[in-house]
Amino acid sequence: MKRDDRASGKLVSACTPFLLVLAATACGPGPLADLPTNSSVYVEMPDGVRLAVDVWLPDDLGQRGRVPTLVSFTRYWRAPAATPTVEALELMRDAGYAFVIVDNRGSGASFGNREAVWSTCETRDYRHVVDWIAEQPWSNGNVASIGTSYLGNTAENATFDPSPHLKAAVARFTDFDWYASLLYPGGMRNLIITSDWGEGVMAMDQNRLRAERVGENVLGRRPPDATWTGVKPVDADTTGALLAAAVAEHDNLHITGFFREVHFRDQVPTATAMEDGCENMVTPYRFQEAAERNAIPTFHWGSWMDAGTAAGVLARFASYDMPARYVIGAWTHGAYYDADPFKPRATPVSPSVAGQFAQIFEFLEPYMFGGAPSDPLTPVLDYFTMGEDVWKRTASWPPTGSTTQDWYFGANGTLQRDPPANSAGRDRYRVTFEVGGGPETRWSTQLGGTEVFYGNRAAADSLLLTYTSPPLEEPLEITGHPVVDISLATTHNDGAIIAYLEIVHADGSVTMITEGQLRLIHHALADSAPYPTFGPHRSYLEADALPMVPWEATRISFTMLPTSVLVKAGDRIRIAIAGHDRDTFERLPAEGEPLLTVYRNAAQPSWVQLPVVSR
Fold it and tell me: Which of 361, 393, 425 corresponds to the end of one domain?
């Protein structure tokens, strides 16, 4: 991988996810009551790279004795120079846990460099840190990895080559398949992550984060005027010399420059074994066999309204044979806010942060304080149905009672149950590059867990090609992965198509539910999929790219992000078609304004297949 010039120091507000990040400690021998609540040291890895580690101990350690540990591995600074109080940290300590947080190699105050995101070298460090934790005088030898977003991925990655002391993992809002889940959904470059996030983390790696206002971040809720002034040195580094030396080693991959040149999955080295070189990314779906073999109980969290996190949870739940618990809600990234589109903005998140951690502690307790659960952990999924405001539990996916309904594109923008009977139906749409999802979407929430709020989509839909059903005569539950199948022609060799599933209410207002997208050169289907996609699958390999033939009708089918929603009687279902989302994706094609033709006739029908659950 080629490296480029370093980041300028600019950081977008909220470039980092979740509450599970603060400082750490290393403690020497002596009475437990005499150990400091917080300390920070370097821990050396087998290759000589020193990682900055912070440890937080319960205030009543002297009364508790040796305690279990929750550990997070971050590239977002284990702690800034000034450390605020964080609710999550206090909840962990009050529950009797030590909390350890580590600057991954090549980031924060740690030494080393980063040749890839989620690299094999970074991942191999985790078992050694867990071993070190187990050796500390305050440790009872039981450790669980925990985190959200990048930290959630590292929590799961720690289970692929685990220390024997790693007893459980809590992986929240993760990217199961880095390519399809987040960076290139449908093969379309996500500029929010490949550019905005990339610039932010590169600034952090160089400790160049200026004293700018930062709102949401890994430290959780911050005061309105909060600023970051740099990463925290270890305790022994009183002059800052060690920190400066560590940062000088951060000759890291230039993320934005690298991904600017990536279009296909196989243009990024991806690990198939932990022994692969440091230039390889670790993506969870490729390590299913290791996860099942090691069988470390894992608690996976996702959201219908957070990029591809719910799709990743469902892929694991449907195919993994290992002890695990799964949950999918209607939250922002990290479950900071409620993101149910039927509720007002700023609705308090439910469960609260304390309620979320109560579930986490219930899951962890048998592995961390006891020997093991009396009964094996049986995989189960708890999921929330939006519009009904009900939590449901299932032991299988799709859930019992699932079937499908096909809704066909019809004349005059209609969406109908009957296949078209006409011989020449079609609609034309000139792609406009001035439309988008808005500033608060399922994609933008990945930058720090900010709100997801699409508002009334009626105005946006006036610039799109829409197909709308009659008012429903009875409620309809849509739970699963909708699949769009369109007979499409375009005037260009490349381009994009985005389909939004929406609900139109009696007053004319429009609610966004979910979406799917595809870069058109990826329209050829793959023979098989490496994990359940619940619909058409693409390889996204360079050799399988197939340019469109201008003006030639081509069958385009793709899976939308999963959802669970109850559409009420009297409401209408809408599919809205776009050729671009200016707030999220790279422009395709780079030049020109494609004219799309959507065919909707007997020989060339177009439709959406909805996964429905009988009631």
Answer: 393
173, 149 in Cβ contact below 8 A? Answer: yes
Cα distance between the two ends of the chain = 53
CB 100 within 8 A of CB 54: yes
Examine the pLDDT at 10 and tell me if it is beyond 60. no
- Evaluate the CA torsion angle 126, 130, 131, 136 in order and state its sign: positive
- Is 11 inside any structural domain? no
Phi, psi for 151 (deg, rounded to 5) = -70, -30
Token couple for 323? 């002890």
* 266 in any annotated domain: yes
Distance, in Å, from the CA atom of 57 to the CA atom of 66, rounded to the nearest integer, reads 10
Matching residue, tokens 């946006």: 460
Per the domain annotation, does 211 fall within a domain?
yes
Q: At what angle do helices 87-94 and 353-368 cross, to 10 degrees?
A: 40
- pLDDT score, position 354: 95
Are both 378 and 463 inside the same structural domain? no
Tens digit of pLDDT for each residue in 348-369? 999 999 999 999 999 999 999 9
Cis peptide before 589 (omega within 30 of 0): yes
State yes or no: pLDDT of 17 exceeds 80: no
Q: Which residue, 393, 414, 449, sits at the end of a domain?
A: 393
Please state, in angstroms and as integers, the Cα–Cα distance from residue 540 to each residue in 455, 476, 525, 611, following that order. Answer: 33, 34, 10, 25
The answer to whether 149 is a known catalytic residue is yes
H or E stretch at 90: helix 87-94
| pLDDT at 547 > cutoff 80 | yes
- On whether the CB atoms of residues 423 and 602 are closer than 8 A, the answer is yes
Q: Which domain holds residue 511?
A: 402-613
Spatial CA neighbour of 106 closest among 267, 13, 231: 231
**Residue 476: what residue type?**
L
Q: Which of 250, 263, 300, 333 is catalytic?
A: 333
Looking at the structure, tell me whether residues 97 and 57 fall in a common domain: yes
pLDDT at 127: 98
Tell me which residue of 297, 295, 331, 301 sits closest to 313, measured CA to CA.
301
- Cβ of 402: how many Cβ atoms within 10 Å? 16
User: Which value, in Å, is the radius of gyration of the alpha carbons in the chain?
Assistant: 24
Residues 407 and 376 in one domain: no
pLDDT tens digit sequence for 460-505: 999 999 999 999 999 999 999 999 999 999 999 999 999 999 999 9
Q: Of residues 145, 149, 163, 557, which has the active-site annotation?
A: 149
Query: What percent of the chain stands above pLDDT 90?
Result: 85
- Residue with structure tokens 């109850």? 566
**333 belongs to the catalytic site:** yes
Tell me what pLDDT residue 18 has.
30
Residue-level pLDDT at 82: 53
Task: Give the amino acid at 612.
Answer: V
- CB neighbours (10 Å) of residue 543? 8
Domain count across the chain: 2
Q: Strand, helix or coil at 185?
A: helix
- From the list 125, 205, 306, 340, the catalytic residue is 306
Strand-pair partners of 576: 466, 500
Question: Does any domain span residue 3?
Answer: no
CA angle 458, 462, 464 (to 5 degrees): 110
Q: Are 539 and 490 found together in one domain?
A: yes
Kindly give, in sequence order, each residue whose CB lies less than 8 Å from that of residue 73, ignoring residues fewer than 6 positions away: 101, 102, 104, 122, 125, 126, 129, 145, 147, 151, 154, 155, 158
At 259, which amino acid appears?
F
If asked whether residues 343 and 429 sit together in one domain, one would say no
* Cis status of the peptide bond prior to 398, with omega within 30 of 0: yes
